[in-house]
Automatic annotation (TrEMBL):
SUPFAM superfamilies found in the cross-reference section: HAD-like
Superkingdom of source: Bacteria
InterPro entries found in the cross-reference section: HAD-like_sf (IPR036412), HAD-SF_hydro_IA (IPR006439), HAD_sf (IPR023214)
Cited PANTHER family: ENOLASE-PHOSPHATASE E1
Name of the molecule in the record: Acireductone synthase
GO annotation, biological process: L-methionine salvage from methylthioadenosine
Molecular function, one GO term: acireductone synthase activity
C-alpha cells in the first residue's frame, strides 16, 4: 500500500498509535517488492545494514528477495488464506508471538 495508507493503518490499532515502532515506510516507489535491490535501498534509507533488519511478509517471493539482500526474514502465515510451505528455507509463523529475535 501507499505510505499514507501505511501510516494511517498503524495509527489506528487496538493498541493505539504504533507508528513509533517503524523506522520508515516504503511502497513500490523504492522499487519492485520482488527484487533484491529494493531491500538494499530500504536498509540504506533507514541507515541500517540489511543484516540488522527484520523483514516480515506473507509473500514468499518478497521474503526470498529480502533474504537475498541479507535481511533477516519471517513469513507470516495467515490461517484464513495460506499454509506453511513445505521445505520453505525461512521461518514461518502464524503469530507475532512466535517470532524469535
Amino acid at each position: 500500500g501507499s505510505v499514507k495508507a501505511q501510516k494511517l493503518l498503524f495509527s489506528n490499532t487496538n493498541f493505539g498509535d504504533l507508528n513509533y515502532l517503524f523506522s520508515g515506510y516504503f511502497d513500490t516507489n523504492i522499487g519492485n517488492k520482488k527484487e533484491k535491490d529494493s531491500y538494499v535501498k530500504i536498509a540504506n534509507h533507514i541507515g541500517l545494514e540489511p543484516r540488522e533488519v527484520l523483514f516480515l511478509s506473507d509473500n514468499p517471493e518478497e521474503i526470498a528477495a529480502a533474504a537475498s539482500a541479507g535481511m533477516n526474514v519471517v513469513r507470516l502465515v495467515r490461517p484464513s488464506d495460506a499454509e506453511h510451505i513445505k521445505d520453505f528455507p525461512y521461518s514461518q509463523v502464524e503469530s507475532f508471538n512466535e517470532i524469535k529475535i
